Amino acid sequence: MSTNEGGEKLKMHIDPTEKAWIRAAIVVLVIFAISVTIAGFMLGIQVPTEEQRVDPQTITQELPWSEPGVREIIPGEKYDVYLISRMWFFEPNTIPAPDSTIAIPAGAEVTFYVTSIDVQHGFKIQNTNVNFMAVPGEVSKLSTTFDEPGSYDYICTEYCGVGHASMFGTINITE
Ligand code: CUA
Q1: How does pLDDT run across 19-34, given as a tens digit for each residue?
Q2: Does the beta carbon of 124 lie inside 6 Å of ligand 1?
Q3: Distance from the CA of 169 to the center of ligand 1, in angstroms?
Q4: CA–CA separation, 116 and 84 (whole Å)
Q5: How confident is the model at residue 11 (pLDDT cuts 50, 70, 90)?
Q6: Residue nearest to atom 1 of ligand 1 (CA)
Q7: What whole-number distance in Å separates Cα of residue 97 and Cα of residue 82?
Q8: pTM score, two decimals?
């Protein structure tokens, strides 16, 4: 910015070093905005968002939430899991249920639909990047693929009261 004797009175004086830092801060903000845009829209990395609004008071009265658990969409390839979190357990706490005829094989795409019917809970599957919140009134959705067979534990990651530590379950993935 050019200054002269007359102009200087009208312009706010900003130290050149400060100016440089202001520019640097703006550049960093722009870089972050671009990174987030690329990650979100080009690479498809999305924070699990609200899939649907629901009424936590009545959600369990209707399908699919009246029968939470696994649905086989395409055998061997695609599965949906409906999971209710509540004080202080997950419904179901074993996926697939022990008496279920459905098995989820490694490599299949598994989509989790998770909600809460009381307070805010968390849902994290150990040793995976599946980790999101279960908020009353909202359904969170996230798809993942388990590459290795085995059992994967899931836990509540939001402190939700005295029974918080007892909120866990297991997903069994077959060959
Ligand atoms: Cu549910 Cu902590």
Answers
A1: 999 999 999 999 999 9
A2: no
A3: 12
A4: 6
A5: confident
A6: 121
A7: 12
A8: 0.73
